Every structure is written in structure tokens, then in C-alpha cells.
Amino acid sequence: MQPLQVLPEALRRSIRGVFSDIDDTISTEGRITSEAYAAMARLRASGLLVVPVTGRPAGWCDHIARMWPVDAVVGENGALYMRHDDRSRKLKKRYAIAAGERESARERLARIAERILRDVPGCALASDQPYRECDLAIDYCEDVPALPPTAVERIAALMREGGLTARVSSIHVNGWFGGYDKLTMTRLLLREEFGVDLDMDRERYIFVGDSPNDASMFEFFPCSVGVANLRRFEGRIATPPRYMVAHEAGAGFAELADFLLAGR
Fold it and tell me: Of 2, 71, 176, 210, whose CB is crowded by the most CB atoms within 10 A?
């Protein structure tokens, strides 16, 4: 991982949009700071596309798409995207799986959750679980005392035994039925809503994140960036980002925004 400052100037000036994780990337200790929120607003005001790509639930995404200075949001690790059309005053939603499949999956997810809560002492259902439509989120350090890496890996293993795709974020272990992830839904969003073939234009977009569930995005984007707190997961991320900012969490996101906007 190289310092962000070595990113070639021509590449920096060619960037058209920023995709970003939320927890511990835009947020700091569970809060969106004024510095990070203002950075989002400055990026969007400059004409750059701004899209959070998060593991947070559909219920949160409804609020984010409507209220934040963003163009759209990808939620539940790629299960859906939402975009608010300010002209028509309509919220557009797109899901990776059909409504019937989502409904039938809920009972199976509940059974898997029961086993995890029984077998891994100290973990809990994520407090935002009631607002989820597609996945299961197990809290290992957000609202519970932090569990050791072995317990986190055990949660992920139990999800996989139950047939789920499992990903570890900085606060939760998320599991879902299906092969989608953050990248597949980001591709779909760009194609359907903005007419962009992301595979052809990947060098014109940047992704910033902080944890193992961002690995597919780090691998895909030549301009992938980690905030400094990502170092806590060193050795546990299949593909780390190519660049690193000096600061952690929201301050690191603001650092990235300053770097991209310098001279524009």
C-alpha cells in the first residue's frame, strides 16, 4: 500500500466519482463528523459522483439516499441500491434478489442467527437488524464488548456452514444467500442509473474503505484507497487497497477529498 500522494497527477484529475464504505471510513467511532459530511458535500458540489457502498441496512439507505449529499447508495453489501430523483421526488430501489426470495430467506436467516448466538458467547444481533431486507448482521464490537478475531472467524464459519456468503466488516459479520457483493451492485447501479460501463471506466472512479468486506472493491479499482485504521486488518484482507491515506476514519475520508479536489 503506497501513500496516496504517489497517485499520478493525470489519474487524479481524471477521477469522475468516489465510492466509499461508511462505517469507520466516513464515520468515526460511530458518528459522521462535520468534517466528513462536509467532504461529501464538497465532492458532490465539484461535479464528482458520490456513492456510499455499505453493509448497512435498507432502512438506513432510504434515509441516506434522501438526506445525504450523495447521488445514490448501495446497501446490505450489494443486496440493493437506492437513488432519489430530486426532480420527480421519487426514491428508486433495485434489489439483487426478488421479493419472494427475500421473504423465504428470512426464516432461514433467523435459524442461522439462533445457532450463532448460541455457539459464540458475547455476540449479538446487530441493532440495525430490524431494518434489513436481505441479510443477517451479527455484532462483534459495535454495541457489545469487542470479541477476539477467533470468535469473529467462528461467526463467519457458521454462516458459511449455513449456506451463506459471509463478510467481515469493522463492526459486524454479515451473511446472505446469493453470489452478489458490493461490486456487483455497484456495476449495476452505474449501468442502469448513470449509463456507465464500470468495467471500461474503472480507472475514472475511486473506492475508499477500511475492512475485509471491501476486498472485491479494492481488487477491482486501480484507484483503491484505505483509511489508516485499515491496518488493524492487515493480513486478513484478501486484496488490500493500492493506496493509503495518513489519517483514520472520517479524517482520512476528508483527506482523500482534499487530495482529489486540489486544483480542480
Answer: 210
> Which element (helix H / strand E) includes 151?
helix 149-161
26 three-state secondary structure? coil
Question: 78: how many CB neighbours lie within 10 A of its CB?
Answer: 31
Domains of the chain as residue ranges with CATH: 2-96+180-261 (3.40.50.1000), 99-176 (3.90.1070.10)
Cβ 244 vs Cβ 225: under 8 Å: yes
Cα angle, residue 156 at apex, residues 222 and 174 outer, rounded to 5° = 65
Comparing C-alpha atoms, which of 131, 132, 127 is closest to residue 143? 127
CA 107 to chain centroid, in Å, comes to: 25
φ, ψ (nearest 5 deg) of residue 206: -125, 145
**How many angstroms separate the CA atoms of 137 and 133, rounded?**
11
Adjacent-strand bridge partners of 18: 50, 206
Q: Quick check: 216 and 179 in contact, CB under 8 A?
A: no
Question: Cell 479536489 appears where?
Answer: 261
Q: What is the model's pTM?
A: 0.95
Strand 31-32 to strand 27-28: parallel, antiparallel, or no bridges (unpaired)?
Answer: antiparallel
